[in-house]
């Protein structure tokens, strides 16, 4: 006797209809929805730690813009019908405080995932803990090479260009424009600084030419100034200055170079190229600085009609008017919040930590509103390199002149 597929399918559909009509409402779709801690039919809870206070407080705006973005989404109905509860906690850029805040988010608040947390040293302090708990640690505001290790630490993914990639590209640029360069380096005395330092020096050494590092100076985040380090570097005979710093140290060092009348080719880490940092240094003092670029700027005429910049500006005006319209750090936070929202949207009704990780690690091709055209995320489950397309750029004193063609390491 020939089987009748249509009849069999009808019977299955009929049974499903009967089941749905007889089961209490909360149980109708239970088989299709999956939740871990921090997720339910009505809410998704996510967290973050950033320095809202202390020497890195400039970056606290990352959390405030995230709050604004998710508030806006919630007012429009949330993500897949669920409201987002976003908890951004202060770690003061301190490893012990980061541990305390992260444990609270995981063990007391029971967040589904963390995203956009900042700092190599603070995030290193919770790296193993979050992986042992199976909690996604996504879109980190640090480009340390250690985050690209999906075999051993699959729950952790960087959100910035990896520092070694950036350093190697800048080193190749130095060799091409100053083959006999004498390089002086200022670097932050922690994992952040050293992750740039080693790869940069290795490219110079491997090139076999005469370009070399002739002096290194370090600073700690708690140092009130970096004046003495800059004085030493200016007297060293260096004609290239590689500035591996963050926040106020970046502004101080750029300004000090100008005060000293020192005229080296200046290289600056991409994380310190935000307009707020350059403004504090004095834009006229920033002319000629070379850096990696992969993102748009806010507060500049060339971008004011860009749809992504316009969307950010609308959000800023409505929810955070006290933030300057040229605050690129806030714009970076906006881009990451949009990306995290996209990850959650792709999760659908499977709001497990495993699926959050799966969606994050398959973001290849997604364009953040923060990115320059042509730059997208490149994550795959086997390679957590956030992006592989970067541009060399030079600051004119008013804007970044971006190279026509991207570079890779």
Task: Describe the overall structure.
- The chain has 409 residues and is an alpha/beta fold.
- It has 2 domains: 36-161 and 302-386, Rossmann fold (3-Layer(aba) Sandwich); 164-293, 3-Layer(aba) Sandwich (Rossmann fold), CATH 3.40.50.
- It is built from 13 helices and 14 strands.
- Helix 6 links the parallel strand 7 and strand 8.
- The protein is globular.
- It starts with a helix and ends in a 7-residue tail after the last strand.
- The model is unreliable at 1-31 (pLDDT under 50).
- Keywords: Signal.
- Belongs to the leucine-binding protein family.
Salient structural properties:
single chain; 409 residues; alpha/beta; Rossmann fold; 7-stranded mixed beta sheet; 13 helices; 14 strands; 16% strand; disordered N terminus
Largest sheet: 7 strands, mixed
Q: What is the helix tally?
A: 13
| Neighbour order of strands in the largest sheet | 8-7-9-10-11-13-14
- Quote the average pLDDT: 91
**CATH fold category name of the largest domain:** Rossmann fold
Distance between the termini: 66 Å
Poorly predicted segments: 1-31
Radius of gyration: 24 Å
Strand content: 15-25%
Helicity range:
40-55%
Helix and strand string, N-terminal first?
HEEHEHEHEEHEHEHEHEHHEHHEHEE
Compute the number of structural domains: 2
How many individual β-strands? 14
Within CATH, the superfamily of the largest domain carries the name: Response regulator
CATH class of the largest domain: Alpha Beta
Shape: globular
CATH architecture of the largest domain: 3-Layer(aba) Sandwich
Structural class: alpha/beta
